[in-house]
Amino acid sequence: MTRSISLLGCITSLVLLAGGAQAEQARLTVFAAASMKNAMDEIAAGYEAETGNAVDVSLAGSSALARQIQQGARADIFISANTDWMDRLEAGGQIDGDSRVDLLGNAIVLVAASGAAPVEIAPGMDLAALLNGGRLAMALVDAVPAGIYGKAALQSLGEWDSVAPMVAQADNVRAALALVATGAAPMGIVYATDAVAEDDVHVIGTFPEDSHPPIIYPAARVAGSDNPLDAGFLAYLQGAAARAAFERQGFVVLAQE
After folding, report:
1. What are the boundaries of the signal sequence (predicted)?
2. How confident is the model at residue 257 (pLDDT cuts 50, 70, 90)?
3. 119 is in an annotated binding site
4. Strand ranges of the sheet holding 201-206, from the earlier edge strand across to the other edge
């Protein structure tokens, strides 16, 4: 009898260990640009409900996430807010180029607190005067995609030199958005999708598409990942449920299943 109980205990332990290993395998880690927060919250919840698998989404500026991947951070999928950082990782062998897909498009906008008057964004707009001594909130202009696009647009419009001393740089675009939402800065440059996500700001102008490089969000599998969920999640990002979530947040969906 004792021997039978002992054998049963061993079998139970093995089953529990196997179950724990399966549970660990059924978890996915996604590094995604901070501007994707609201959409990724919805997509992760939908994916988990549909598949029973868990997904952990780490959000930050694309530059910070890319550097973490370069330094060996554990991630399965990377979604960047521009092609440059994905290109660097692909050139360095840190992402699987065959899995790469151009997933989304976006626009950059000028935002202000509710009640601010609309602004015509064009050469000669004199943004420095419109700031009236206040700061212009932007993501890091030499590292974070939203800041890079914003700086390029201001340069194209002939506004950068006069505005540069007034720029308050934030680690990522959501942090820049928060500066405007809390009143720390009267205006900011963020993605159109960020403006949708924040009730305390509104769009007062949209930058012309030809004033900055095309805004493209590529997604790819991280080269060091052997997670069997990778391909399925990339496909899910291109499917109908994810498309609806992205469009609700104002993204332009480029990829299709």
Report:
1. 1-23
2. low
3. no
4. 167-170, 136-139, 187-191, 108-113, 201-206
